[in-house]
Amino acid sequence: MTSQESAGTSVTTTRRSKITPEREQEFFGAVLDQLREYGYEALTMEGVAAKACCSKSTLYRQWKTKPQLVAAAVRSGRCVKFSGVDTGSLAGDLRSAARAAAQQAGNDTQLVQALGHAVLSDEELRAALREALIEPELAALGAMVDRAVARGEIAADHPALEFLAAQLLGVLRIRPVLESRYADAAYLTRFVDAVVLPALGLGEAT
């Protein structure tokens, strides 16, 4: 083989192994769909390949293992629900955050439930779940609180602040278990007004 032919072969191989961002998102979408529908244990590389119309070897070449592929897909679905919320008051911010959370409640809850026990035994999956669904919301809630403290609405050491994230994120996860329904905007707003704001000493809706 000549050097020119060798160079041509190298270029061809590189082109074949490269995945465009759009195609990568198709793979990730297939993974997330399979996760929500069947759960982590039942998800297979074969199933993802069939849904994404590709070969198993394509998936294995890029991500090596099922946990690596799932972790990448979870990270790709990162959506900061509370990002950009700034109404000028902590009460207004929390109500807006509740309405924003309701828009993704079904998808997020399904994903958490689908990963189930897998996140307890796989550190990479656990880290991906935190990175995609938990840490962005914690940061956004922290920013809301920091603004409220700066405005003098609430003391930085208010004891209820420690439980704010657990209240808002926890109610999203538990309502499907208790009532077989996702937490919609009306439910979450009522929760904020009846439980969260009084605990913070901010009273009822104004």
From TrEMBL:
<feature type="DNA-binding region" description="H-T-H motif">
    <location>
        <begin position="44"/>
        <end position="63"/>
    </location>
</feature>
<dbReference type="GO" id="GO:0003700">
    <property type="term" value="F:DNA-binding transcription factor activity"/>
</dbReference>
<keyword id="KW-0238">DNA-binding</keyword>
<dbReference type="Pfam" id="PF00440">
    <property type="entry name" value="TetR_N"/>
</dbReference>
<feature type="domain" description="HTH tetR-type">
    <location>
        <begin position="21"/>
        <end position="81"/>
    </location>
</feature>
<dbReference type="InterPro" id="IPR009057">
    <property type="entry name" value="Homeodomain-like_sf"/>
</dbReference>
<dbReference type="Pfam" id="PF16859">
    <property type="entry name" value="TetR_C_11"/>
</dbReference>
<dbReference type="InterPro" id="IPR011075">
    <property type="entry name" value="TetR_C"/>
</dbReference>
<keyword id="KW-0805">Transcription regulation</keyword>
<dbReference type="InterPro" id="IPR050109">
    <property type="entry name" value="HTH-type_TetR-like_transc_reg"/>
</dbReference>
<dbReference type="InterPro" id="IPR001647">
    <property type="entry name" value="HTH_TetR"/>
</dbReference>
<dbReference type="GO" id="GO:0000976">
    <property type="term" value="F:transcription cis-regulatory region binding"/>
</dbReference>
<dbReference type="InterPro" id="IPR036271">
    <property type="entry name" value="Tet_transcr_reg_TetR-rel_C_sf"/>
</dbReference>
<keyword id="KW-0804">Transcription</keyword>
<protein>
    <submittedName>
        <fullName>TetR/AcrR family transcriptional regulator</fullName>
    </submittedName>
</protein>
